[in-house]
Amino acid sequence: MTTEPQGLRWDGFAEACPEIADRAAERFRRQELCMLGTLRADGSPRISPCELDFCEGHLILGMMWQSRKALDLLRDPRCVLHSCTTERMGTEGDAKVTARARDVRDPELRQAYRDAVKARIDWAPDEPSFHAFSIEVVSAGFITFAEPRIVMAWDPIRGTRTLPFPDGD
Prior knowledge:
The protein is an alpha+beta fold. It has a single domain, classed as Pnp Oxidase, Chain A. The chain has helices at 10-16, 18-31, 68-75, 107-121, and strands spanning 8-9, 33-39, 45-55, 58-64, 78-82, 94-103, 130-144, 150-155, 159-162. A six-stranded antiparallel barrel has the order 2-3-4-7-6-5, surrounded by four helices.
């Protein structure tokens, strides 16, 4: 029997692996969203764009109340986040985060999230009509095809690793 991997809150991940966390945070902040992969009830994958914000040491995903992706995460918290690729050559780099999403119920953290959204787009969702999930990082990676080409991976067992760039063979 295998146990589910424990994840790190964003600030813990950033402390454990600043090489990837800093690059991922820059990409996520610049684009103000990510692609979120969840698991449907039948086990098939779903991918959806999702807004995100950083507050109080958390990376928080906000979602419309009872949206399909929110219901997916309430049923099964396993997910993956991917930075949005905006050009074919991948020179901006791709951040990938495997995680567990935790439903944010704490009123103070929910308010901090609402304040972060308000600061970013001059609007905030009304309580209680939205979902907020804190991301707990299980593993992460970053790759860029720009020179110098970079391939990095992190997980709590093996730590941060620089990997050889794929040759394409």
